Amino acid sequence: MLSTLPREILLMIAAHLINPRDILNLALCTHGFYALLHHHAFTTLVLRDHDLHQLSRFTDVLARNPRCAQAVRVLRFDPDPEPLPMREGDLTKYDRAVILPVLEKSGFSSTAVARWENELQDKMDIDAWIAVLLSLVHLNVEELAVTFYWPSFYVRKLLAKSFEAAEAGGGATFFPRLRELSARWWDDENGVPSSYILPFFRLPSLRIFNGEMIQDGRPSDADDLRKEVPLSYEEYYDERLLEEPDYETDPEGYFAHYPGDENFSNVTHIRLTYSSSEKGFPDLIRSCRSLVSFAYEHGNCASSMYLAPRRFYDSLRRHKRSLEELEICYDRWAEGWGDELESEFIGSFGDFAALKRLRLRWENLLLPSDGEGGAVTKGAANIPMEALPLSLESLTIEEYDKCDNPKDFMAQLRGLRSALKSQCPDLSSLRVIVTGEDMPPQEDGWPLYSAPSPGVHGTRRAAELVASTVENISIPKGHWECFDVSIINREW
């Protein structure tokens, strides 16, 4: 019988059950199973965004069962494409005898605790409830995906208080085992300020950060946490109207104002999608001691409407010995505005000794040269080969249709490939992304594929179908062995 199996075998069985409900059903079989397995059903928690009914009840359960709270290893708030309608009685569940002791352990003042308690009973304040939940589960969580709501005061305040306690020798750091953090903004406008994220970078265990709709932070964001209670909506937007320097008068992006200075974070991988930065996120990039990968997809959502790749370069150069993968381009649903910053040459990667994978827009790889009559041309011949590292293994060129003379694409690409193989002996993949308007004709011999999903990561099928490419371009067979050339039409 199952009940006669050793505890170790039962735990192995529970570990292979993916659905938490299956674990709960198993735990309910006997009193012994319940004592052994019940808390394992809480190892992975996936909650719906904007659902205070679900959030408040889960928080109540974990507050009553500390063993279950400490069992949580993965906590995710997932966007719900079809939010459940509010039903009669679907209000927050607030039991003061259960939740108040949790608030009092936070280190907040009595004034702040009283305000926090009031907002927990307000059915519209999700941020206050998220903070309570995080304070319950943080000890053993290794992966966290959280949605930030305005003004995210209590989550940020909890993190700041934990650092104060740790520095004073009076407590453990918040999220001592967190390795991966994913953050997204709750709305489809504006974004999570980078200053909200930067304190998480101080967590010693954190290695990976994924952000969606991240924008530039402000120096005054840190001032919010010096207050006992969050700013009102009116106070917050009054402060945002204060005069602040633009990039030209403050090219470091207020970096000196951020806590921790440089090189204090163990984060090695940063991926930002549908995000916006006028300054190139110097606070996030320079905080890292040794950045291995950085990916940025610009979205027209917040602080900067245009992509300015050159403004990322100086911060990225600080990681030229460790950076292995770099992507800077527009998000699938974003587009350029014709600003000159969009087409600037990003800079040379010739001395980036570890760089293996590079994904950039066509214009940002080019050094413009004068054509006939003094006209500036932007073709493949204008890519400075010395700007590419010897270690490069994969090059993806976005927005080919932005370059001049698309009709000469075949000749340009043949010349580019020859030059690349000479400069980058380890290069095995060259991919060119077009948007469909000026795409090269398929009958010229180059295979043309449609990207099946957003982003270059949806092009695996194309990579699998390029075996005939080597023979189709009139180059001796075997000369370009294992050299993957793909032209991918990204349909909008």
UniProtKB/TrEMBL annotation:
It holds the Pfam family LRR_15. Residues 263-434 form the Leucine-rich repeat domain. SUPFAM superfamilies: F-box domain. Coiled coil: none annotated. It comes from the Eukaryota. This is Leucine-rich repeat domain-containing protein.
